[in-house]
Design goal:
Family: Belongs to the class I-like SAM-binding methyltransferase superfamily. RsmB/NOP family.
Distance between the termini: 54 Å
Structural class: alpha/beta
GO molecular function, one term: RNA binding
Number of domains: 4
Protein name: SAM-dependent MTase RsmB/NOP-type domain-containing protein
Strand content: 5-15%
Shape: globular
CATH class of the largest domain: Alpha Beta
Oligomer: single chain
Number of strands: 12
Keywords: Methyltransferase, RNA-binding, S-adenosyl-L-methionine, Transferase
Helix content: 40-55%
Number of helices: 17
Largest sheet: 8 strands, mixed
Order of helices and strands: HHHHHHEHEEHHEHEHEHEEHEHEHEEHH
GO biological process, one term: methylation
């Protein structure tokens, strides 16, 4: 029997780890392979994601004690490194902790199976129970595409779809759909709804719903609603547009705002041959440009309000004075970045052997590119507002870029002071608590830093790490105090606002301690039946259908949390005992 069950995920992991991938992420690779018959399926995608998320832990185990295990299994000498990583994940961290199939690579790994399991157990003991945690489960955010549908219609469709499924997951329950308090038209669903929506829901496939993380929605929201006095019936540029989620979100927001304008302010278009607003969407990669165009065609229907015009080209080579862009007043710049804020992204877990110096060089290279891109956006003479955003948590890609761009561009201006750029706190996110960082290499003041938006997926924001800055020319800044409560969301849908209901259920994927190959005795088989049930806190595997009572869920969640705290305490005590033992042994050996 061959090792074929892992050939496809292994080849994708190879591509992700290789510099020859051209920086493409997992989604881009999967999409390109899906264009041919027999592309990667759901199982392959899941295996690749989990393998990539565990590579840092696998490398830590292999590199311990001078890298003896790494050399023993021959990781650095094998031809198919990605396949070996997949097999190591399956053996050490997967549900069944075994490798299917056969072949030379499997034999190389199984030969050292006991040492590998001991290494994993030592790693978990040393780093605590959280060391084996594979992911953080955020709510599943679903943006309703109001260009094609409405909140009420989509809620009804989702409820009907959930009712048809035979599973007993939490997303089936009544009251499991919420409205986000910051982003209009954004629904908040239980994390367990993700796989269902990806595979089964017609609303997603038809483009009526877009699965988009909350923080990713901030860029378009801020550009469209950062200043209430800025005109809506103008053109925009999305400088780095593919795959198109932010582009199409901006289109929906502009269309919505145009509908709210009084008739006297709406652009008169007698012959109705040109849309009121055009979004010029740049993408320099031909492959990603095709993705962008396909996405725009699906999500933005032809209308007289807004249109998306994909451009195959490099934004940095565009001419700011091109007549084509004469009506452009806003630019959305979300350039390539390190992606360090994306908590569960497999793309952030590449080989894991890069030195600190290598990582620092890469971040600095990205920062230089981002600064050039932002300064180019600021050079468009008629543009009066810009959003610069990243999914990075590094200051070098965020506050430093913002600070340098402001100082360098404003110093070179010879025009009126009214053309100078300045940071503005976006009205639509006025009450978002997490803000930017003052001082440092960016040299921003406390006032400037308070205009910046940050999110942290590891510190309770329930969305991926993100950074948003909003610039306006001095001539258009609204100095009046905007009448806003910090959100433009109007809840007329008979749905509750999301206020951390899923976070309170402590939905975390818990680690399982690695163990030697399981025994096949009767008692072990009975234990296996119970141990293999999902360990999602807030949901008990044997919960009866009538258990939608919130009090019962809270009781179970507290019990689980108490048990986890006990396990963490035990792991810590064990680690301390091992440390003390090593110290005593060292003292005794020195005496001898």
């Amino acid at each position: 029997m061959s090792s074929s069950p892992y050939q496809e995920p292994g080849s994708i992991v190879n591509e992700l780890l290789s510099s020859k991938s051209g920086g493409r992420g997992l989604k881009s690779i999967i999409f390109s392979k899906n264009k041919t018959k027999g592309g990667p399926n759901k199982s392959t995608y899941a295996t690749v994601c989990k393998t990539m998320q565990h590579i840092p832990a696998i490398n830590a185990v292999l590199n311990d004690d001078g890298g003896k295990l790494r050399k023993a299994i021959g990781l650095d000498t094998v031809h198919n490194k990605g396949l070996m990583y997949v097999m190591l994940y399956e053996l050490l961290f997967s549900k069944y902790k075994s490798i299917r199939g056969g072949g030379k690579l499997k034999r190389m790994i199984i030969k050292h199976q006991t040492a590998l399991h001991e290494g994993v157990n030592a790693y978990v003991s040393e780093h605590g129970a959280a060391a084996g945690k594979t992911s953080v489960n955020f709510p599943r955010y679903a943006r309703v595409n109001i260009l094609q549908s409405s909140i009420n219609d989509m809620v009804k469709m989702l409820q009907e779809s959930f009712a048809k499924t035979k599973s007993e997951k939490p997303f089936d329950k009544a009251g499991s759909i919420f409205v986000d308090a910051h982003v209009p038209d954004l629904l908040v669903l239980h994390p367990s709804a993700s796989s269902f929506l990806h595979q089964n829901d017609e609303a997603v496939k038809s483009g009526n719903i877009v699965l988009q993380d909350k923080s990713s929605c901030f860029s378009a929201l801020v550009l469209a609603r950062g200043n209430s006095t800025a005109p809506v019936n103008c053109d925009f540029i999305d400088a780095c547009a593919a795959p198109g989620n932010k582009t199409t979100h901006l289109a929906a927001l502009v269309s919505s705002l145009y509908n709210d304008l009084p008739k006297s302010k709406k652009k008169k278009n007698g012959k109705k041959t040109k849309p009121n607003s055009t979004i010029f969407a740049f993408e320099r990669s031909s492959t990603r440009h095709k993705i962008l165009k396909s996405r725009a065609d699906t999500l933005v229907p032809t209308s007289q309000k807004v249109a998306v015009e994909p451009i195959l080209g490099d934004f940095l080579k565009s001419n700011p004075k091109d007549p084509q862009f004469a009506n452009v007043r806003g630019i959305l710049l979300d350039p390539s970045c390190s992606g360090s804020g994306i908590v569960n992204s497999p793309d952030r877990c590449r080989d894991g052997r890069n030195t600190k110096e290598d990582k620092a060089k890469r971040i600095q290279s990205l920062s230089n590119f981002q600064l050039v891109a932002l300064k180019h956006a600021m050079s468009f003479p008629l543009v009066d507002r810009i959003v610069y955003s990243t999914c990075s948590v590094h200051d070098e890609e965020n506050e430093v870029v913002v600070g340098k761009a402001l100082s360098e561009i404003n110093e070179t201006m010879t025009d009126s002071d009214e053309d100078h750029w300045q940071l503005v706190s976006p009205a639509c996110l006025r009450h978002w608590p997490r803000r930017g960082k003052a001082g440092g290499a960016g040299g921003l003041s406390e006032t400037q830093a308070s205009c910046l938006i940050r999110t942290d997926g590891l510190d309770g924001d329930e969305t991926n790490g993100f950074f948003v800055s909003y610039f306006e020319r001095k001539r258009v800044v609204n100095t009046e105090d905007l009448e806003t409560n910090g959100t433009h969301v109007v809840n007329d849908y008979n749905l509750p606002f999301y206020e951390g209901q899923f976070a309170n259920m402590n939905i975390i994927v818990e680690p399982k301690t690695a163990a030697p190959a399981p025994s096949k005795s009767k008692s072990d088989k009975v234990a296996k039946k119970t141990d293999n049930k999902p360990t999602v806190r807030g949901m008990h595997a044997s919960t009866p259908k009538q258990s939608d009572c919130r009090k019962l869920e809270e009781k179970i969640a507290k019990k689980k949390a108490k048990k986890l705290a006990w396990k963490q305490k035990q792991a810590l005590q064990k680690s301390q005992r091992l440390s003390e033992k090593k110290s005593k042994d060292a003292v005794n050996s020195s005496k001898k």
